[in-house]
Amino acid sequence: MGGEQGVVAKLKQRLQSQPNDAKGWYYLGRIYFSQNNFSAAASAFNRANQLQPDDESLLVQLAESSYLSHDTKLQQEAKTELQKALKLNPQDPAALNLSALMLYHENKYQAAINIWQNLLAIAPEGSDTANALQAAIAQANTKISPTTKATDTNTPSNSTAMNLPIGITIKPTLLNQIKDGSVLFVYAKAVNGPPMPLAITRLPVSTFPIKVNLSDDMTMAPTLHMHDYSSVIVTARISASGQALPQTGDLIGYSQPLSPQHPPKNIVIVIDKKFTPS
Predict the structure, then answer these.
(1) pTM for this predicted structure
(2) Torsion of CA 120, 123, 125, 130, to 10 degrees
């Protein structure tokens, strides 16, 4: 068929007679993307998306092509496309990785690291994906300085950043069930909102009580912030496996629903039970 160019010519010819062929536009976008012709890829993916909306995988590829293009308008549209993809599937790894990449390029290194660390927690150990995530985290860490850390935030300038100081304790009878190397996850979820955390942090288990500041720059996606929701529940979970997704036997505790805009003065979470899937 004359190699890639032959395939492109054949696809274009086919799409002239069958302009509603979503798969044809998708494959054309994939070829353009492989050639680093990101603007053309975005145009092809956009046609496919118009014919086949609500496909988060297609939306992510459209967002990625738009973002990697040198077109300012397309780069702005990429954030909207990514937001749609995350709304359809808040835990899509490709969408989350792209959101971290966007944050990195905006010099919001800690926010990007937070997302990559959570993706690393669910990546197969020793896999190419895990190695790439570790390299991205290491690179982002080299960019962090006291100055950049002070300005590293996802929060839009016209909104008020949330910062929830939280104290975490544990039921004494559960202390002997903490295994060496366990990890503490602390995260906030909207009472009525997306299933993914609005803010999350991961740290080694130390002597209780533990104090944590949960803030808007700990988001997993640039479109999700605590300040956008009137009520959240904060969870503290000790994971022996270090996995971001809850596992049977994890030790867990919850706050009462609270307002990020008007939080109580002293937020204390007691880890008092074992997690069991519902």
Answers:
(1) 0.57
(2) -60
For 79, phi then psi, to 5°, come to -65, -40
For residue 172, the Cα-to-chain-centroid distance in whole angstroms is: 34
DSSP 8-state code for residue 216: G
Could you tell me which of 265, 64, 29 has the C-alpha nearest to residue 165?
A: 265
Q: Let me know: does 201 contact 187? Beta carbons within 8 Å.
A: yes
d(CA 132, CA 129): 5
For 159-191, b where at least 16 C-beta lie within 10 A, e where not — what string?
A: eeebebebebebeeebeeebeeebbbbbbbbbe
Pull the structure tokens for residue 199.
């803010």
Dihedral class, residue 181 (left if φ above 0, else alpha if ψ from -120 to 50, else beta): left
- Torsion sign over Cα 17, 20, 24, 29: positive
Q: Apex CA 150: angle with CA 75 and CA 70, to 5°?
A: 15
pLDDT tens digits for range 153-209: 443 333 445 678 899 999 999 999 998 888 898 988 888 877 778 888 888 888 889
Secondary structure letter of residue 221 according to DSSP: S
- Given a contact cutoff of 8 angstroms between Cβ atoms, the answer to whether 98 and 104 are in contact is no
